[in-house]
Amino acid sequence: MIENALPTIRQRVVQLYSNLTATHCLLCGAIDKGSCLCVACINQLPKLENSCPRCASPVSHNLLCGSCLQHPPEQNSSVSLFVYASPIDRLIADFKYHDMLFLSHFFAEQMVEQLKYRPLPQLLIPIPLHPRRLRERGYNQSLELAKQLSKQLSIAVCSKSLIRIKDSQPQTSLPYKEREKNIQRAFKVVNTMLPTHIALIDDVLTTGHTANSAAKTLRQAGVINIEVWTIARTIRQD
Length: 238
Ligand SMILES: [Zn+2]
Ligand SMILES: [Zn+2]
Fold this sequence. Notes:
By secondary structure, this protein is of the alpha/beta class. The protein has one domain: 3-Layer(aba) Sandwich (Rossmann fold), CATH 3.40.50. 36% of the residues lie in helices and 16% in strands. It is built from 9 helices and 7 strands, in the order αααβααβααββαββαβ. The strands form 2 sheets. A 5-stranded parallel beta sheet has the order 1-7-6-2-3, with helices on both faces. A two-stranded antiparallel ribbon has the order 4-5. The longest helix has 13 residues, at 9-21. It is globular, with a radius of gyration of 17 Å. The structure holds zinc ion (2 copies). The site of one zinc ion has 8 residues, from helix 3.
């Protein structure tokens, strides 16, 4: 399968370099043992405090937000660790576009702290990329994150159950209003033996249209409890 393709030489060099320099904090350069960020920088990351349990939007008391009360999304719950703001946005861009795959370990480690007290799903499913985008990028960041979460939480991961059948434009290149249409019917389930409780894994939850579309496809395939786990949540300004 394409997802299991060997890493490119460029990715290997970046990985090797990152292993050598992993004792220096990526943000402030301080020497730190065993992590890519020092404790002081980790403590200053923009944590998402109270959030809507269904869509992870910031709310004051961990209750359902107004939007979910009126138009609940397909997923039953959402967990997002950070607000998509500096310096998380930069770290995610490095992870996603600049081959810094070692960040998947760090992000998973941070997410696990929040996830380990919840009833855990039976399977992790990364949001898939279309094969053309996967060829361009060389890896799927959501799968890399899911693999790390799988290791740390001892939950199976499957990247072959849900595939992307529509080569839609990147959601970030479109105005908010056009994103829902762009991602409709973009996914297909190819494994009908799915468990009843799964978590979809992605890097950022923005409008939620991608997760919603994927969750809808899984729901139609019989999955009952669908969670969406992301590193960061975009806070809509408009
Ligand atoms: Zn630091
Ligand atoms: Zn909500």
